[in-house]
């Protein structure tokens, strides 16, 4: 592979895994937390300075937007896994073809997601029971917001490429620039231009395209083999299949969690308004902790992918173990920390003591459970590094969607308490994790046999 590795790029196939996985994940954690804060700024600005009903309009789109953005994030994970295996195998031509084919797929995929999100918006929002006074504003937000979907798809592509090579700082820098721009435009469009819902949506779309331009420019200037060149911009069928087979199931996994949340929300809605508002405030803790833990899942896929490509079997299991330990530890520490300061955390979103009390009911279950989700999510990420995605996706569908629907409609009504409702999360995580770990053991053994027959294997579809 030509070109020297930049100092800011970690070596995944050599050195201390404890050190390298942490250093790799740290910028990702900052990036993910910043993304959460930037998204919160949309709600804060429109709620504070927007027109009447603007907050309800934007809030009504949260789950719907997450459904489609989850698909885009999953695509980036697919690029990351395929590229990591190519880099680990020192397959320079494969790296070149993966980068240019993935960019083409990103553009097409982004356009498809944009069209689907806009076209399905009205019927889905009506099906979700969106209140009539919020519907028009919610549709306006979605139409403008998803005009930036292709930009997000391309950014996730670039993020996947850089992360696969151990460089997580560039994506963090570009996301920070785009996020700060988003906040500034939020304030300008809403306060100065009085655009309300349209203002925050337009600010988001512009920031998505800004992050896209920045990351493409960086890839075009890179001295690594994945440098983008117009002369190489043509699709490769085999690479396209690998990226889609890996990325689409990852995106479906993300979307499934949001789909399951619709049913859980139905259970929450069976209580009074105070409980609903308390749950809404407490859910912000979920988002924060899960995004911190997700950094180690990306690390797990990248490190396993490279070491699988390099046929370094002993580092595959070690990468999984270290990533799992870190994600469990961070989930435990931050969960306990949020619970200890629960009143202060919830007061960020509400000043009503009754709502804060209702929010603490959720935190009392979730904050002690976050760490358990690492056994499920990190194992899925490890399987993705071995190019195994279909079976883990089916397991997630059964464990995180079908089982949760069963719980909401069959277990929860037995006592009808919020605690029983919230317990579905740790129970579903444990059950799904058991199945995922069993499958990963089988997949790892098969991969080891493959490496024994072929020291530096190419990824298999």
Write a concise keyword list for the protein shown above.
17 helices, mainly alpha, disordered N terminus
Model description:
There is one protein chain. By secondary structure, this protein is an all-alpha fold. It has 2 domains: 16-247, no CATH class; 271-448, no CATH class. It is 80% helix and 0% strand. Helix 3 (62-88) packs antiparallel against helix 9 (237-268), helix 14 (373-385) runs parallel beside helix 17 and helix 15 runs antiparallel to helix 17. It is globular.
Shape: globular
Counting DSSP E segments of at least 2 residues, the number of strands comes to 0
Relative strand content: under 5%
Largest sheet: none
* Strand/helix succession: HHHHHHHHHHHHHHHHH
User: Could you say how many structural domains there are in total?
Assistant: 2
Helix content: over 70%
Structural class: mainly alpha
Low-confidence stretches: 1-7, 455-461
Q: State the helix count.
A: 17
For the record, give the distance between the C-alpha atoms at the N and C termini, rounded to a whole number: 24 Å
**Mean pLDDT, all residues:** 85
Radius of gyration: 22 Å
